[in-house]
# Entry
Amino acid sequence: MKNLKDTSEMEKSLAHIIVEIIQYMPNAVVSKTIIKKTTGNVTVSSFDAGEEMAEKISPFDTFIQIIHGKAELFINGKEYILKLGDGIVIPAHSKQRFNANEQFKMLSTIIKSGYDI
# Structure
């Protein structure tokens, strides 16, 4: 599995079709930063079918919205199937893991304010 990440921000004051700013790559999870600030960030990611994101714990709440396809998400071991348009808040300090049984794209928003960094 390849994990490709573009950490440069998107151009400001320019309209974007978010689902089109990132493409699927074979055997890879690809991420592009939309906004990156000390108080949080917004990222769009694409997962090729069969890929997964290893389990991790974030110290911050994370909002996920599926913008293409369908994702399998586990939060503290509980399974959630998210389809196009679905959104969910992953609570801070929760174990989270994604599986791509099929290709999907998601928008991820992390808000850091209100927490000790």
Observations:
- The chain has one domain: 2-111.
- The domain at 2-111 is CATH 2.60.120.10 (Jelly Rolls).
